[in-house]
């Protein structure tokens, strides 16, 4: 299985998880916070929506401009790509501060946040499909918070999917805590 196929499979699984696990929850459960400084389920998803608003557009532009049929199936990683991926891997339990404009803490959020997330997943699946005609090792994606640095198309796709996986797992942990609290 190629990296793009793996990323597409993970994206589809995340989409199903969100639809199955969160769509039927009431607003109180979706906004439940295990601690004041923690994020709710909707805040986890809003954080990802904010990243998707930037990276989906940047990826679409880069893929369109580099869709010359010179597909390179394997991704080579820059130091920035490796560092970014290591930071967002779900198994990296270390908490990281997010940049202020990407922090959704205390936002007024509702079910539209879930709908937007699912729409971004559809867009991402289309980008992953379109990337099959692209040199994945082309440095073309400006880093959101420091646009002078650029990541490669392939490592950016992997970063986006891995970052989403990390925060969907976080949202699932919040759901477990909300269910326990509601049962108590």
What does this structure look like?
The chain has 184 residues and is mainly α. The chain has one domain. Helices cover 59% and strands 7% of the residues. It is built from six helices and two strands; from the N terminus they run H-H-H-H-H-E-E-H. The chain has helices at residues 3-22, 27-30, 41-65, 79-88, 112-130, 153-183; strands spanning 139-143, 146-152. Strands 1-2 form a two-stranded antiparallel ribbon. Strand 1 (139-143) and strand 2 (146-152) form a beta hairpin. It starts with a helix and ends with a helix. The mean pLDDT is 90.
The percentage of residues in β strands lies in 5-15%
Order of helices and strands: HHHHHEEH
Number of helices: 6
Strand order of the largest sheet: 1-2
**Helix content range:** 55-70%
Low-confidence stretches: none
From the alpha carbons, calculate the radius of gyration and give it in angstroms.
17 Å
Give the integer mean of the pLDDT values: 90
Main sheet characteristics: 2 strands, antiparallel
Structural class: mainly alpha
**First CA to last CA: what distance?**
45 Å
Domain count, please report it: 1
Shape: elongated
């Amino acid at each position: 299985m190629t990296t793009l196929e793996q990323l597409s499979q993970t994206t589809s699984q995340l989409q199903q998880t969100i639809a199955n696990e969160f769509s039927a929850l009431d607003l109180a459960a979706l906004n439940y916070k295990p601690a004041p400084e923690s994020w709710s389920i909707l805040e986890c998803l809003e954080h990802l929506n904010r990243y998707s608003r930037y990276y989906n557009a940047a990826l679409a532009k880069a893929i369109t401009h580099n869709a010359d049929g010179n597909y390179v199936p394997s991704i080579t990683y820059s130091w920035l790509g490796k560092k970014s991926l290591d930071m967002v891997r779900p198994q990296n339990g270390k908490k990281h501060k997010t940049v202020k404009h990407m922090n959704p803490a205390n936002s007024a959020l509702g079910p539209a946040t879930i709908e937007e997330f699912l729409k971004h997943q559809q867009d991402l699946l289309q980008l992953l499909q379109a990337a099959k005609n692209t040199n994945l090792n082309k440095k073309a994606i400006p880093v959101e918070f420091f646009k002078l640095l650029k990541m490669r198309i392939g490592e950016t796709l992997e970063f986006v999917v891995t970052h989403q996986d990390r925060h969907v797992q976080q949202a699932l942990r919040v759901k477990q805590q909300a269910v326990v609290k509601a049962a108590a």
